Amino acid sequence: MTAVHQLLVGASPGDAVTEFALAIRKGLRAAHGRSEMYAFHRDPVLHTDVLPADHESIGDHSVDDILIYHSSIGQPETVQVLDAWRGRIVMYFHNIVPFEYFYPYDPYWASLLALGRMEVTVLRDRAVLTVANSEYSADDLRAVGYDDIHIIPPVSSLYRLRDAVPTPSTLVHLEEHMTYPMILYVGQLLPQKRVDMLIDALHISRTYLGLRPTLMLAGPGRLGRFESLLKNKVRELALPGVHFTGHKNAEDLAALFRHATFLVTASDWESYCVPLVEAMSLGVPIIARATTVVPETLGGAGLQLPADSGAALMAEAFARVANDDELRLSLAESSTARFAELEKLDPVGDFIAAIGSVQ
Amino acid sequence: MKLAFVVQRYGLEVAGGAERHCREFAERLVERGHEVTVLTNCARSYVDWSDDYEPGDSVVNGVTVRRLRVVRPRDAVVFDDLNARVAWGRPPVASFIQREWMRQQGPEMDGYEGALLDLARSHDVVIFFTYLYSTTFTGLLLLAGRVPTVLHPTLHDEAPAYASIYRQMFRMPTLFALSTPEEVELVERIYGVRPRHRVIGVGVDLAIEGQPDRFRKQYALTTEPYLLYVGRLDPGKGSDELFDFFAAYKIRRPGPLKLVVLGDPIKALPAHPDVIVTGFVDDEVRNDALLGAQAFVQPSYFESFSMVVSEALSAGLPVLVQAHCEVLAGHVARSGAGFAYRGYAEFETAVDILLAHPELVAEFGRRGRAYVEREYAWETVMDRYESALSEAFDLGAEINVESAVR
Amino acid sequence: MTEASEGGDGRIVTELKRLLAEHQASGLYPSGMEGELVAHVNRLALGPSRDLTDSIGRFESSVRDVATVDFSLERIAPGSTIPGGAAMHRAVGRLVARYIEGVMIQLIEQRQLLVAALEPVSDVLRNVVEQVGSQRQSDFESLTAELTSRIDDLTLSVDQLRRATPGMPVELGPDGEKFVERFRGKARDIREHYRSVAVQLVSDGPVLDIGFGRGEFLDLLASMGVDAFGVEPDEQLVERARARGLHVECGGGLEWLHACEDDSLGAVTLFQVIEHLPAGDSVELIRTAARKIRHGGKLMIETVNPLSLYAFAHAFYTDPTHTRLVHPEFLEFMVEASGFAQSHIEWRSPPPPKDVLEAVPGRDAVAKAINENVSRINRLLFAPQDYLLVAVR
Q1: Cα A357 to Cα C360: distance, rounded to the nearest angstrom
Q2: How far is the C-alpha of A138 from the C-alpha of A126, rounded, in Å?
Q3: Which domains does chain A have, with CATH numbers?
Q4: CATH code for the domain defined by B2-203+378-395
Q5: Which residues of B touch C30 (CB under 8 A)?
Q6: What is the mean pLDDT of residues B298-306?
Q7: Which chain A residues are within 8 Å of C34, Cβ to Cβ?
Q8: What is the ipTM for the molecules in this complex?
Q9: Which residues pair with C386 in a beta bridge?
Q10: Strand partners, B126
Q11: Residue among B178, B273, B183, B276 nearest B230 (CA)
């Protein structure tokens, strides 16, 4: 029986790509297949579970064996490892952030992103199967000559937050100390996510539109210079009500979602936006700029602002949604309805089935 | 000389120290043969800058007044939030936010910049009153280097003064006209600059006449001694503190002493049998009240000159002033005509002494009179002021007005 | 991407756009509001470029300062407002001219070397900044961060050098304590040294001790129950003395003297301080002290004895912060001219006997002649290292 292994650049718990890869491995092993995960960067928690991505540990394999490469960023060693792999390759494209967003803050990170795009082009002829995380990402692949692309979102657990018990003390804290509306952003604080625009919109809605809002920015910084830029921006706008929570576990996140008036994203670029799915799983209203994959993920849900809208229109949306109970209710319903559609999907099953078709 | 004044409000009905200060100077310069134009707006209240006067030119006591419409009334919701964030916030605040705070503070006037340039073209010196408002901020930035400018900042030690946006503005005027020696120090302390300046002060009417009995009769007073306070009833002016001190004094020293309060209530005082609040009164009633008072009290923490104190001194009253305010303490130190108190204990002692020693009250009265005659007789003040304006004009002589004002 | 399919309700987006346009038109929003906010992010993203220019500016001004520190004999003003003071100055000057000149030459050489070494650095920095200016912003930033820290280091060392020039306070760092112990002696020895002085002040409280150093004299006064108060410019020393419960403040002696009421002090003491001060300051200090000390109170000044060559070799040059020596006669003249009723000099710290030339034994004429010369040489070379001036108001 052929083995199906997976190669990731980085593996860390909670990361959408890692969680999805773990779910696939579980599915394959359940069918008594041999399946390992390899990664160049492994979180210590996964050190025994995920193997290092080098020749020694990958070791012997047959030409029939399959290596699924999860492409999300470049890594100088990737091409070497894939060159040495004599078996077949499946490309799972999670898409790669345009490097321009990172260049001003971290040139090295930016260069890895650029490298990642090159890898995708180089690997085109070796992929026996191509999967993209969204229609939007599939378009990117087609642009560099891929065809016959499967679309499978990297969703391993739709119920992570719905099943989590909100931390009671966090809920109490939010209820007692956060002014209305409590606007929630979930995600890493990265330039392409345009967290700066959220802060600007908060400033406009507070200063001119009579709101006294709270903005919870729930997510790790990852890029120190951008994070301090955001903090300086808040300070220089003398803007009260902005909270940087840092990374939060599922229980705290569940509390934040349950208390939030709405979830917001101003992101310029998403290839698959997990927090949107999480908000929908809990029936939380959403305001989002309809950029890149966002309309595809939301379907008919949420208040979708045009992709070219700026902070001022977003501020108007904040005020409108905060002040209009009926609208908020209908947005919540649209979230729930869209989630019901997503529940019908079985991404892990689909993925394993697709692998089976080439095995 | 042809002189132009720029001020945020102007008119006989306009209350406010700086505005009255500006009008007195303008009118007296006309009396001295100068040609004076005032550029202002139609507002009477700074709370919303709503149009009360007709726009266009008019003549008020010999002074040509040019009024522009206010573009937008002040939006209290917007301004209060920005004010709390910018004026009271922790620096650094981005300068575009500070400029927006300035714009929302107003008054924003229709055609202001054009009217100002017109004025500059046809006048020798342009004089701005009060540092705080956007009239002065935009005006000075527009005219600096084009014509000689004089700024009367009427600065006091208050939170908005520390906004960094003013650091640039305080380096713009050709000459500063300051009210007191303390103001010179304050400018240096806040803005780190010791600009070219003259200490001018404000003149005071030396012949205060009235009928104290008329006032007593009107407010049902017989022979009781009373302390007098003239000014807005506003916690920022110290009126709450004065009320508390007075109420405490009455508990510790029962007796006939009253407190008479002349002024509009921004925040009303609680009722007290020995406190008489008259509301706003005209000059006649005020003079009647001044001449009958035992002593004058000025509890304000924020004063840049305090014309009411100089008037009280002129009326021969001893003054009890807030020692936390350097300007007021300076008046008392230079005149020797009263006490600067810090806290209740000193207030109580000062009142005790004044009530027990009529000979001291008389001596304080003499010293106060002598001080204002020496320093603040209108003739003296206006001589100083004229010479300051000529200095500004001479300093600005190198500026080629024709080429600078296009 | 074109206008996205407005899921939810396109009508709401249209309405929001209309509201936005209204708010812009009414003047509620400042013109160009969104542009300002975006420009703000860009400015924040540019980061420390301003700081770099600042740092270079500070560095250059430090270099300029070093270059303009003017060491010359002419700068030691011979003028004096006291009758006869100038003549006294010149006399003292002649006496120590050779030594001072020697120091001066070395200092000037040192300064020239330093400036020569530093000036090209700022040229290089300016050049780097200009070149980098044409590169991509990101490269520029990592470079600037590094440069900024390097320039700060350099500025720091320039500052240290500047402070090490005579008359400037010197940071001795963690070794300061050891330095003082080695060259001024252990605290216990110093206390013994000053005990006889402290005894003279038992009825002269309050005493102001200017430049109390490690506070040994204040300790002594405290043990004798004398009300005393110390000022010292070195914060660390002040902290330590305060921790021992001494009544001390951080600052310059002159400021604190000025802050005292006239006729309020029983005594003012300056031990090993005046040789650190510029001439003008010590004159003003003595005059001010005369006003602040009450009738019958004392001024005590202990300093290095310029009449002792031994002191030169040992005491004076071991401390780089020493500025100038003060001749005892000049000091006596000064205090009397400033209004003190009487004054006298006590000679202190004779060189250890082992260092002094010994008399030859014998009573004959030769021995007598030799011994007379020995004692003359001893007087010249091995005069006591310090002297204490006691002036009574």
Answers
A1: 118
A2: 17
A3: 4-156+345-356 (3.40.50.2000), 160-342 (3.40.50.2000)
A4: 3.40.50.2000
A5: 99-100, 103
A6: 91
A7: 200, 310-312
A8: 0.91
A9: C304, C348
A10: B4, B149
A11: B276
